[in-house]
Write a structure and sequence with these properties.
Helix content is about 15%, strand content about 55%. The chain is an alpha+beta fold.
Length: about 70
């Protein structure tokens, strides 16, 4: 087979710590049910504010995973 086909899954991870932790949360939870994840792209970053302070980061990521085929 000459190439691969990837499916893109869009998820939003959250964290009270950091943007990076929100991304890791999304990937970690997705990895429990999604196989062959290969890459991610941050699509959107936002957060929740309480009493004038950031209380939660919300990061939407697009995760690419390779579609399995009988030929691969």
């Amino acid at each position: 087979m000459a190439g691969h086909v990837f499916k893109i899954l869009e998820l939003t991870g959250t964290s009270s710590k950091s943007v990076e932790d929100a991304v890791q949360t999304a990937i970690s939870i997705a990895s429990k049910t999604v196989r062959n994840m290969s890459w991610f792209q941050i699509a959107e970053t936002r957060g929740h504010i309480i009493d004038g302070k950031v209380s939660e980061w919300q990061v939407t990521v697009k995760i690419g995973f390779k579609i399995e085929s009988k030929d691969s």
